[in-house]
């Protein structure tokens, strides 16, 4: 009976996701190369206007790290037609909200307004692209803002630097070896001419995807988009070369120190393939198997049953060019870091040599079906997904079809991917320790 109920639940989730979650959209290019994606949803009188630029920390010069994240701040300073300090006031006065964020691969800006303010959102984003004011005063102001952010989020935040230490060991050539926030000295040393050159190179329509999602009239939106973005000149084509890393073939031992912690941590980290690959999705599923929820393998074993760890889990940090797969644990009591690694390795070996049970496999499939059903529950989330799938994957319709990749993953795939990537001779083992 239990198996029948489980199968019925799975069938319901699949049917619901197939019938209720398809995101309709239209996409096209402007003559200047800007890609446009429109999604109509009249269920609420709101509209999201978003622009994703294909520029992130990996596009920076080695001695000028932090530029992409810096621009996330700098391009709120003001424009030819928006005075310094007025951007957020305009948004708030018109019932909206806005934000931006940067990763190693892209930078994303958005506004959410009542739908009668669609034109305002388009005008503001076109102003950011066409008429930004990049001057020394703004650079100096935002330099201090970024430094304060680094102090709050990195320098004084417990366990905030483990990824920095891991990536330095995982990547020797690729720019992923750095941090998104960058080195403050590099920003201090950058000249105004360098900031202007960065903007001219990357903040161009042919390096941007515009998404308008929400309560819109498609024909009217197209007309407004052409009026505000069509006249913006195309920039020079951006040539990108993916820097390839040599395989890791021998174990790497490393230590990192954090003055903000009292309890150490242990991480085993592996370099994995691009998030565009099926293998990366299999690693997502392995992460769920290992560490999603209190019934997951690592929590149940290390935290609940053996009481060796305060926390344990797995993270699949998938990115455009490569991924970093991290398994971690925080010891409890007198437990040695090496003992936690031994216990984790036992579970990885099981994955590599045995098929997970049908019941566990079905549970994983149900988890991913549920995530898919919930992933596009807001217009704001849909806008982000449409932009991300277009810019980083080159396939906007993955918003509807990526779940099919997860459905195609078999128990044999899980076993083979674990064997392919999660081996002791292919990893960094990082002891993350309180600073002496």
Automatic annotation (TrEMBL):
Keyword hit for Transferase: no
Zinc is among the record's keywords: yes
Secretion signal, residue range per the UniProt entry: 1-22
GO BP annotations listed: proteolysis
Domain of life: Bacteria
Residues of the Peptidase M16 C-terminal domain: 190-367
Keywords noted in UniProt: Hydrolase, Metalloprotease, Protease, Signal, Zinc
Protein name per UniProt: Peptidase M16
